[in-house]
Every structure is written in C-alpha cells, then in structure tokens.
Amino acid sequence: MKQFKYILGVLALVSIIGCDNYDVEPVIDESAKPTVTATAMDSSISEAGSPITTVTINMDKPIKTTTTFTAIKVGGDATEDDFEVENAVIPAYQTSTTMEITIKDDFIAEGTESIQLQITPSDVPDLYEVLGTPTVTFSIENSISFSAELDWDGSYMDASGGDHSFCDYDLDLELYSADFNDLYYASYSHCPEDYVVGQGELEDGDYWIVPSFWTNNGPTEPASPENIPAMLHFGVLGSNTESVTIDLSTVWDTQTGGYLQGNPDAYLVKYVLTVSGNSYTVTDADSGSVVFEN
Q1: Which of 205, 209, 214, 148 shows the shortest CA–CA distance to 176?
Q2: How far apart (Å, rounded) are the C-alpha atoms in residues 195 and 173?
Q3: Which of 25, 63, 205, 284 has the maximal Cβ count within 10 Å?
Q4: Taking CA 258 as the corner, what is the angle to CA 185 and CA 160, rounded to the nearest 5 degrees?
Q5: Residue 50 φ/ψ region, left for φ over 0, alpha for ψ in the -120 to 50 degree band, beta for the rest
Q6: Which run of H or of E encompasses 9?
Q7: Is the CB of residue 213 less than 8 Å from the CB of residue 259?
Q8: Which residues contact 113 (CB under 8 A, 6 or more apart)?
C-alpha cells in the first residue's frame, strides 16, 4: 500500500513538472529580450486642418504580455499645446503597432517648429523587460488657413416645460465659387458647422460663404416661436489676427422654418470671401463693407 502511494506521488510530481515545461519561459536572458525601434511617418507636416500623423513601433521579437507605449517630449521648440499623443499598445505575441499624433491647428503665427519624442514602454513586468527608448523627430509647419464656423447652440423650452437644444434644428454651411457652379466646402451634419480653407487650396479670387437653414422638421416645437441663435465666426489659423463674430440671430426662426418649408430666405447669400495668396477678406455684399480681413 505504501509503495502504491509512493508511485502515485512520483507520477503527480512528474505531471506537474511536465505541465510547467509547456508554459512560455520568462525572458531572463538579456539576448532574449525584445528591442524596440520607432519610425515617424512624416519628417515634416503642416498643421492645417489638425492632421494626424503616426509613429510605427516595432519589437524584434514577441513576448507573452501586452506592452503599452507612451511618448514623452524630450526636445524641440514645439510645446504641448501644438500636439496630442495617444498611447499605443502591442498585444501579447505580436510585434508591431502605430501611435497616433494629432497636430493642433491654431490662430497663432509660430513659424516652423520641431519636436522630438521619446517612445517609452510602460507596465511591463521585469521578467519581460523591453529594451530601448527610441526617439523620433519631425517638424510642424505653420499654415495660414481661413476658418468659417456657424454656431447655433443654445436651449429652449417646449410647452410642457421640457428643455431642448437648438442644435436639433438643421443648419448648414457651404462655400461656393463666384458663379455658384462649384461647391468647394460644405458642412452638413454637425453643430457647429465649420470648414477650414487650407493654405493654397483655393485659387486667388472671390467665393460665396453661404450659411443656411435646411429644415425645422424633427425637433420638438418651442412653447412659442423663437429666433434661432445663429452666430457666424471668421478667423485665420496660423496668424495673430483676431477672429470676428457676426450675429445672425434675427435671420431664421423656428416657426418659418428653412428651405424645405419654402422659406425664401433660407439661404443667406451675403458674404464674399476674397482670397489673395495668404490674405483673406470677407465683404458684406449688401453694404460693401469689409467685415473681416487678416
């Protein structure tokens, strides 16, 4: 009986040792630890339109734990306000990922700036240490771009006292050629609606900036008719020009509705954008007065 128990004990021990042999061994030998490299997609990128660039991160061998990478600014004259970085993850048993970096467009004339980022692994157990903290360097080019925005955010009460947003009403913002044969920019499904005319995207000449009220179908009616609190904003990104706001809060109302309700004033054809190189001028076509220029 004792001999039978002894044999069972030996078999159990062999079984446990055998199971361990099937597990992935911890990375203890330095030569077995993965080395990290990083490559920037762009060496130079314009800030126009807040573009996204990427950094490709590679490990020369996989490990069995997930590895998170962060980016730390270690050099260059760009500031934290000029970009935004998302952490990147290489899943277990994989060797590559991409890190997204959003370049922030702004109204400040800054010239070309440089940035150096250190790519650093984090939250990795010591037994699976990842070797290397590579750096990537690229430049951010200032862009002088025209910006138009139509905003009508605000709230109103219905007949039962419920609170609703004016954003439920469908307003749009478009940019047409001088003869209205070509539509160059359009924003239809947001609140606010906006577009940015990047540097060099339009030929010199005149264009129509057209805000409009498409329909009042859908939103809950207010307790009594109300004006839609629309505001039109003009500015030039990449310059120190002060932006301008034009009050359109008496142009449209909830009762008359928009284009689909047959409103003849649904489209406000009033503002002309004149492009001349990096200069942008907006003129009120009715009065002939300049309402914005950089």
Answers
A1: 209
A2: 8
A3: 63
A4: 120
A5: left
A6: helix 2-21
A7: yes
A8: 76, 77, 78, 82, 139, 140, 142
Residue 47's CB is within 10 A of a number of other CB atoms, namely 25
CA dist 171 and 188 (Å) reads 7
Averaged pLDDT, groups of 10, the chain, 294 residues long: 46 44 52 89 83 94 91 90 92 95 77 90 73 91 87 96 97 98 96 91 96 96 97 88 95 97 97 95 97 95
- How many CB atoms are closer than 10 A to CB 180? 10
Give residues with Cβ within 8 angstroms of 186, minimum separation 6.
Answer: 172, 173, 174, 175, 195
Residue 115's H or E segment, with its range, is strand 113-122
Q: Bridge-partner residues for 138, per DSSP?
A: 115
CB 232 within 8 A of CB 150: yes
DSSP letter for 223, please.
S
Name the nearest CA neighbour of 248 among 274, 209, 206. Answer: 209
> Is the separation of the CB atoms in 245 and 227 below 8 Å?
no
Phi, psi of 155 (to 5 degrees): -130, 160
What are the residues whose beta carbons fall under 8 Å from the beta carbon of 21, sequence distance 6 or more? none
Closest by Cα among 176, 242, 254, 167 to 211: 176
With tokens 């128990």, the residue in question is 5
CB 93 within 8 A of CB 140: no
Cα distance between residue 99 and residue 157, in whole Å: 45
- CA–CA gap between residue 212 and residue 188 (Å, rounded): 10
* Range 114-149 burial, b when 16+ CB lie within 10 A, else e: ebebebbbeebeeebebeeebebebbbbbbbbbbbb
Interatomic CA distance for residues 228 and 205, integer angstroms: 32
Which residue matches tokens 């650093």?
A: 120
